Amino acid sequence: MSLELELVDLASRIAREAGDLARLRRAEGVHLAATKSTLADIVTDADREVEMLIRERLRVARPGDGFLGEESEAERGESGITWVVDPIDGTVNYAYGIPSYAVSIAAVRGSAVAGEWEALAAAVYAPASAEMFTAATGHGAFLEEARLSVTTETPAGALLATGFGYDPATHDGDLATVRRIMPIARDLRRAGSAALDLAFVAAGRLDGYFERGLKPWDHAAGALLVVEAGGSVSLIDRDSTRPMLIAGGTEVHRRVIDILRDET
Ligand code: IPD
């Protein structure tokens, strides 16, 4: 078995176990542990517990690998492979009881900096719907056993998704971006989990997705899903404090880039 397939097998097994724990904790009642960058940016006890579970499972299975997660300290490994992990992407949905949240686990090689690494394997698991999205580089993207493909035709305009930063100071800029994009959209979704938005682009449930200021763990796994489903992903304005991630089928991706490239 190739390294990529071994890694995706491990990632999906751990993501399913982690997602089942998140769903159990949600059913028991969610406790807010702290706020982070802003009042809107929250972490629950479950985010931390689920990340610890994932980290421990990875440490036992692959002790030489590095780790970059949303809720705990990063660790550089010796193997050249780093796991990029969001234990619960869509934490605000999770805290409110909205089912759009996911465990996101990616294995990357080389730099642990988004846009510089080589993605090898990805698993995005949505516990509420029990849907497992996986991809291994060179082997395609899947929803369970079904092979995924991005959309190629958008005759009525593109069904797009986006997200907004937690810092209220960024809202005006994000809304201005939405205004510029709407002429090519048939409609816009803001579902609250970047990992699931990207998985849905891979599955053809959305035509494209764009968002400024994502963290690496929000998009590491989802971006590989899109690429392996035949789509394109770009991280533009990488020198800015809020780089823009754009994903979609080749044509939608190109049209969104054309509109947003010159934005500051
Ligand atoms: C957030 C979600 C959301 C996106 C935010 C992310 P978190 O991740 O992916 O959809 O709009 O930018 O921070 O905080 O729930 O892990």
TrEMBL record:
It catalyses: a myo-inositol phosphate + H2O = myo-inositol + phosphate. The keyword NAD does not apply. Its cofactor is Mg(2+). The lineage of its organism: Bacteria, Bacillati, Actinomycetota, Actinomycetes, Micrococcales. It comes from the Bacteria. CDD domains: IMPase. It is an enzyme of class 3 (hydrolase). Belongs to the inositol monophosphatase superfamily. Its EC number is 3.1.3.25. Keywords: Hydrolase, Magnesium, Metal-binding. Coiled coil: none annotated. One of its GO terms (molecular function) is inositol monophosphate phosphatase activity. The keyword Magnesium applies. This is Inositol-1-monophosphatase.
